[in-house]
Amino acid sequence: MDSLLSMLQRAQVGWTDVVDILIAAVAIYELLKLMRGTRAIQMGIGVGLIVGVFYLSRWWHLDTVNWLIRNIAGYVVFAAIVVFQSEIRRTLAHLGRARFFRYLTRTESNDEIVEELVAASTSLASTRTGAIIAIERDMGLRNYIEGGVPLDATLTSDLLLSVFQPKSPLHDGAVILQGDRVAAAACFLPLSVNPAISKDFGTRHRAAIGLTEDVDAAAIVVSEETGRISVVLDGQIEVGLDADRLRAALRKLVPLRKAVSERVNAGSMD
Questions:
Q1: 209: Cβ–Cβ under 8 A, 6 or more apart, which residues?
Q2: pTM confidence score
Q3: In a 3-state reduction of DSSP, which class is residue 222?
Q4: Does the CA dihedral 52-30-38-145 come out positive or negative?
Q5: What is the pLDDT of residues 106-156, one digit of tens each?
Q6: Domain ranges of the chain
């Protein structure tokens, strides 16, 4: 005890040490928040138990147990990467969407896009026509676009209404928007496996939630059964929006990036 006290008395804590501790604390806190409610919690508990057994085997000279843990540790790491690849991808995407990085990406909203989406969504809702519209934001949706039918057409409410008509060959699937362009239709999105999702939500809602869990896209869902309009972002769904609430939500979620507008203008010049 005396040696410990003397060591603490000799230790000098500078501002760099404080910054170091704060960064480590914030990193651990954010990691725990990302792990909360996922399978990674059980994984973390398992890793903690293995680490605890490893040190106990060293203290109690359990050579066989110590040798076994040291030899399987590397394989456990690779197995965890394979099993939890979706969680790892989601974590890295979440870090890329931090507020600090959002300030580095200048965006401007486009009221024309919002009004076209509101008009199409309310019309579809009035006839109880099911629809799902995915809106690309900072992270690209090329993988999903390539799996659908490419359109590359100017966004209009009439186009969306035509795509989602029950007799249309493109109605089964999602429409993906890139800026003010309809990139593709009949796109299939990953279904969410989150057990906390209400059983009242059907395939469209689960697909929208699944997409927004993996990337930073937003999605509009029109229920075929109830005609309710929902907006999904970051795996969270807001149900039962009217035209005004939908418009207010989309003005925050629908950015027209300058790079997109410039690319479209360049294409029209060609």
A1: 192, 194, 197, 201, 232, 235, 237
A2: 0.61
A3: strand
A4: negative
A5: 444 478 899 999 999 999 999 999 999 999 988 888 889 988 999 989 999
A6: 2-103, 107-256
Q: How many Å apart are CA 32 and CA 45, to the nearest integer?
A: 12
**CATH code for the part of the protein at 107-256:** 3.40.1700.10
229-230-235 Cα angle (round to 5) = 165
Write out pLDDT tens, residues 171-222: 889 999 998 899 999 999 999 888 888 888 889 999 999 999 888 899 999 9
SS3 of residue 187 by DSSP: strand
Gap between the Cα atoms of 211 and 18, Å rounded: 39
d(CA 97, CA 125) in angstroms, rounded, equals 31
Among 252, 210, 250, smallest CA distance to 120 is for: 250
Spatial separation of the C-alpha atoms in residues 160 and 37, rounded to whole Å: 36
Alpha carbon 198 to its chain centroid, in Å, reads 19
**Which H or E run includes 81?**
helix 63-83
